[in-house]
Design brief:
Length: 198
């Protein structure tokens, strides 16, 4: 049933496609939006389109950024010889929030999952191996402690071992299956400091 007229219904439909937005929230957001001043709605729409079109991957670490190199990769205050491997940009943000990690990152954009048909070629693994041709002392594997995260960690460590570069894994204590972004900073720091060599 189309209670609201097709344009409002369309807006509700589009909003309910967003993650975590159910039918009720979509309705609430839609009514909020149609009551906003037109210029604010325009600002919101512009910000979404600009962010989507302007975003690209850092050519070094593959995090999302709007220039060739992200602020972390282009900083000379960071230790470029230590690379922390994370599954996604949100995990990178979680570690950055601790303010204590001084190395750089590598964002895989996923994890190996035979069940979902995601293989090593589907994540930014080749790109990581290319970075290791340079001057790298340690690779810290900070993939999630889910089955996929552990599988990915094992796979990467086997690939890197022959190069002689030190490979470490963040300590458990990060809840199994837990997404890194939901874990508090103290736990993250503890996991980082308690990392063990693979
Ligand atoms: Zn970068």
């Amino acid at each position: 049933m189309d209670y609201y007229g097709s344009q409002v219904t369309k807006l509700i439909e589009e909003l309910s496609k967003l993650p975590g937005v159910g039918a009720k929230s979509a309705q609430r957001l839609a009514f909020h939006i149609i009551n906003m001043p037109p210029e604010q709605v325009q600002g919101l729409a512009d910000a979404m389109v600009k962010a989507r079109n302007g975003v690209k991957y850092c050519k070094e670490c593959f995090t999302l950024t709007d220039s060739d190199l992200c602020p972390i990769c282009s900083s000379d205050k960071r230790n470029h010889k230590v690379i922390m491997v994370v599954e996604n940009t949100r995990d990178l943000a979680a570690y950055e929030k601790t303010g204590k990690y001084e190395g750089v990152y590598h964002v895989l954009h996923g994890a190996i999952s035979p069940m979902l048909g995601i293989g090593p070629g589907d994540i930014k693994l080749k790109e990581l191996m290319q970075r290791l041709q340079g001057d790298v002392e340690e690779v810290i594997i900070a993939t999630n402690s889910s089955l996929e995260g552990e599988t990915t960690a094992m796979y990467i460590s086997k690939l890197i071992k022959p190069t002689g570069i030190k490979v470490t894994r963040i300590a458990s204590g990060v809840p199994v299956g837990g997404d890194l972004e939901y874990i508090d900073e103290v736990t993250l720091l503890r996991a980082l400091e308690g990392r063990t060599e693979l």
